[in-house]
Amino acid sequence: QAKVKGRDTLCFFDPAIQAALLTSIHLERELRQALALKQWQLYYQPQVNVDGKTTGVEALLRWQHPERGLVSPGEFIPLLESTGLISEVGEWVLEKACYQLARWAQYPEFCHLTVSVNISPLQFQDADFVTRIKAIFERTKAPLQRLKLEVTESLFVEARDNARDKMLELKALGVRFSLDDFGTGYSSLMYLTQLPLDQLKIDQSFVQRVLTSSANAAIVESTIVLAESLGLDVIAEGVETQAQKAWLLEHGCHAYQGDLSGRPVPVDALEEQLVSVQH
Ligand code: C2E
Ligand code: MG
Ligand code: MG
Ligand code: MG
């Protein structure tokens, strides 16, 4: 408990702020432990085409907490980023996903799958980012033409020139880039002409309102046209209903990801689903 000590003395007296601070200190300690004990898991969410065929998956990080169970990334990625721990966790994610990609390449029923991996803009800022990624590629022998790295618009606000060179270096190896959460950042459309992107991912906040808001519908429609004009692939994320899927199809978007076609699941469950669909 803080006391009032007189003028010019800074002290915490707001119990809410103090509680939040203690929580994040506690969380940081837990995250460092999670890192040491490797309490991470990768879940995979299907990406499907018009025929309902799964063409790829997005790898999504989960934290298997000893008491709290499975924790979603929204609850801990921001703290991993602010503490700089994201680079190490991000490498774990990429390596795990690349091993999976290499393993799937050996099975006729899975060898067509692409794997998308989220990369934090902070990872991009590491001076040795490309070197470390290349080391992962060499260790895992992943077929890189089926690897997609998902980046967000904030990358281009923070490190545009740098990011472009690093992207080009990775693209030379066959890796593709997808722009996640398109339309939700605070950046100019200029980066679309400057950066070597392959795919736009329409953010779920737009997708989920295509039928209820004409403004949202207009944004999604324009994004699909924009992607096509720029020669980029487009995929809609957060598709939850048949009606949303039908609307997207009607407007020229042929790739989807969302609860409608499958929630994120562990690798065993994913493989079972994919095999059972084929028979
Ligand atoms: P994201 O990359 O945009 O991933 C999509 C998120 O939307 C996932 O949440 C997914 O479970 C959720 N989602 C997919 N379809 C639907 C749907 O139909 N309805 C609803 N309501 N939600 C849907 P998740 O797994 O909780 O991940 C949240 C965010 O955390 C991700 O958003 C990504 O930005 C970040 N993230 C996840 N894994 C990683 C990682 O390995 N590294 C980094 N840097 N960030 C990650
Ligand atoms: Mg993503
Ligand atoms: Mg997204
Ligand atoms: Mg996101």
Biggest sheet layout = 8 strands, mixed, barrel
Average pLDDT confidence is: 92
Note the total helix count: 12
Unreliably modeled segments: 1-5
The number of distinct β-strands equals 9
Structural class: alpha/beta
**Percent of residues in β-strands:** 15-25%
Bound molecules: ligand C2E, magnesium ion
Order of helices and strands: HEEEHHEHHEHHEHEHHEHEH
**End-to-end distance:** 65 Å
Instruction: Compute the CA-based radius of gyration.
Output: 21 Å
Please tell me what the overall shape is. globular
Helicity, as a percent range: 40-55%
Strand order of the largest sheet: 1-2-4-5-6-7-8-9
Describe the protein in words.
With 279 residues, the protein is an alpha/beta fold. Helices cover 46% and strands 19% of the residues. The chain contains twelve helices and nine strands. It has an eight-stranded mixed beta barrel with strand order 1-2-4-5-6-7-8-9, surrounded by five helices. Strand 8, helix 11 and strand 9 form a beta-alpha-beta unit. Helix 3 packs parallel to helix 5. It is globular, with a radius of gyration of 21 Å. It starts with 14 loop residues before the first helix and ends with a helix. The N terminus is likely disordered. The structure holds ligand C2E and magnesium ion (3 copies). The site of one magnesium ion has 4 residues, from loops. It is found in: Cell membrane. This is cyclic-guanylate-specific phosphodiesterase.
